[in-house]
Design goal:
By secondary structure, this protein is mainly α. The protein has 20 helices and no strands. Helix 5 runs antiparallel to helix 6 and helix 9 packs parallel to helix 13.
């Protein structure tokens, strides 16, 4: 198989998994949102606060107890899969399950023992019994994460969607609806969350035992050390990522009023929407490039990264342009007049998140190449920069200062990782087919923004029109700058074959410009 065939095959697999992941996660989030609305309307604000705080503690402990094993397992197993050493693949699976089970049981015991202390610390007595209940679900949640990473190795995005997004959220909503119909107490609302985790975990484990071969001639225990030493930097990286995410909100709460926290947390998720594309692509991109690295196919690895990053930038650019140029209209449309003061913060956050997306899965590419330590070092430097900038900018500029700090942090961390990727492997995304349409689209969008500032006042109802306009501008810039890659055409042909859609007209247009 030559370079083009290898890259084309890799990209088809990434595109297929990304579509499944994106659609499934959106549906799962929608179902979870419905459940959240029902709970908010059913329980008192104080009870909802207890539930929310307990879930946050539970999630944080799951992340820490995972020790970075899910990502480490996927990388190591994918590496051996690329070498076609299936016995070692199964040994890594076994080591991951043993380690996550032990870690989950220890974390559960710790959470149960410290539940009273945490309840006293937060000044919420009911947090004690909710955390005790959730402690019994913690080992199951840990095992679920490990099983997802196993199926990720085999590029099974559908399994992740079913057992992590759809099944638990659907069970939770069903249980909550039943509780409401039967007028049951808050205790049973908490149990609805518990049962949704445990039952979906049992179903997932049953499915896994029937569909994955775990027996191996290799000694599972000798892979403990390999997994732990590779995964621990990834755990530190995850913790640093959480610190970066929380620091601005916590420091806004310290320096400013609670209303400012609300304004900032209204803007932040909107800017973070662009990262959904990155998460969708990354799920299968990671095991695929790990296999390419195992086969020493660095050229194919670099080309796959470049094309995937171009797709991510293309998908995110219209959203970024709307958020960056018209943040006040976006906030007014979604939240109302009260949130318009967060416009400058949204603009800064949009720029920071777009910087993250436009450089693509650079950190995962380094990790796939066995460089787990450098992204962790970059994350540590970014966390320090984020804290210092928040310390300086929030008292001066309020929530806009916090947003500038976050944007600067994302830009710095990603620049460091991308420079390392280029220095060691000569991998970068900035091909002429990436740069030309992006530059033209930005220039035209800036012109539209300047005209709108002079002639008309952009209102919320105009945003869908502007979004469509920016999509059209980008597509036209792709055509007239002849910026379609051969891989783009291959993906179009794959979509045509899989869906049975006649794209003859599109292929005729492309022939004129490719």
């Amino acid at each position: 198989m030559d370079v083009g065939d290898t890259v084309g095959d890799s990209l088809r697999r990434v595109a297929k998994g990304a579509a499944i992941f994106f659609i499934g996660s959106i549906v799962g989030l929608f179902i979870a949102f419905i459940g959240r609305i029902i709970v908010v309307r059913y329980v008192s604000p104080s009870q909802f606060g207890v539930l929310s705080l307990s879930l946050v503690v539970f999630t944080i402990l799951c992340t820490i107890a995972s020790m970075g094993l899910p990502e480490g397992l996927t990388r190591q197993a994918s590496y051996f899969l690329g070498k076609k050493d299936l016995e070692k693949v199964k040994a890594v699976f076994g080591a991951g399950i043993y380690l996550s089970t032990i870690s989950g049981l220890l974390a559960a015991a710790g959470l149960f023992a410290l539940s009273d202390v945490l309840a006293e610390f937060f000044g919420m007595p009911d947090v004690s019994w909710t955390l005790k209940i959730f402690s019994f679900a913690l080992p199951v949640a840990m095992l679920n994460r490990t099983l997802v990473s196993i199926f990720r190795t085999y590029e099974r995005a559908d399994v992740k969607v079913i057992f992590s997004d759809l099944l638990p959220n659907t069970l939770r909503v069903a249980f909550i609806v039943a509780m409401v119909i039967l007028s049951m107490s808050f205790y049973w609302v908490v149990m609805a969350y518990f049962f949704s985790i445990v039952i979906s975990g049992i179903v997932f484990l049953t499915y896994s035992l029937r569909n994955v071969e775990f027996k191996t001639s290799e000694s599972v225990f000798k892979y403990f050390k390999i997994l732990i030493f590779f995964s621990l930097p990834l755990l530190i990286q995850s913790i640093l990522g959480m610190l970066i995410t929380w620091t601005d909100t916590l420091m806004i709460g310290y320096y400013l009023a609670s209303s400012d926290v609300g304004l900032y947390n209204g803007a932040q998720p909107l800017a973070g929407l662009m990262q959904n594309f990155l998460a969708s692509v990354s799920f299968l991109y990671f095991p695929i490039v790990s296999q390419l690295y195992a086969r020493n196919q660095l050229r194919e690895m670099g080309r796959t990264y470049a094309v995937v990053t171009k797709w991510l930038m293309s998908a995110s650019l219209p959203i970024f342009l709307v958020l960056f140029f018209f943040p006040d209209a976006v906030l007014w449309l979604l939240y109302g007049e009260a949130y318009v003061p967060a416009a400058y913060a949204l603009r800064a956050l949009a720029l920071g998140f777009f910087t993250h997306v436009m450089l693509g899965p650079n950190g995962l590419t380094l990790i796939a190449a066995g460089e787990a330590k450098f992204p962790t070092i970059a994350g540590f430097i970014a966390a320090v920069i984020n804290f210092v900038l928040n310390l300086i900018l929030i008292p001066l500029f309020g929530i806009t200062g916090a947003a500038i700090a976050s944007a600067s942090t994302y830009a710095t961390a990603n620049a460091m990782i991308s420079l390392k990727l280029y220095k060691d492997y000569k991998i970068h995304p900035f091909t002429k087919n990436y740069v030309k349409p992006a530059f033209i689209s930005l220039a035209v969008a800036l012109l539209i923004y300047l005209i709108s500032k002079t002639l008309i006042q952009v209102e919320g109802w105009m945003l869908p029109v502007l979004f469509i306009l920016f999509v059209v501008i980008y597509l036209l810039s792709l055509l007239f700058t002849r910026s379609f890659d051969q891989e783009d055409v291959m993906i179009m042909l794959s979509i045509e074959q899989r869906l049975g859609v006649d794209l003859t007209w599109a292929k005729r247009v492309l022939k004129r410009f490719v």
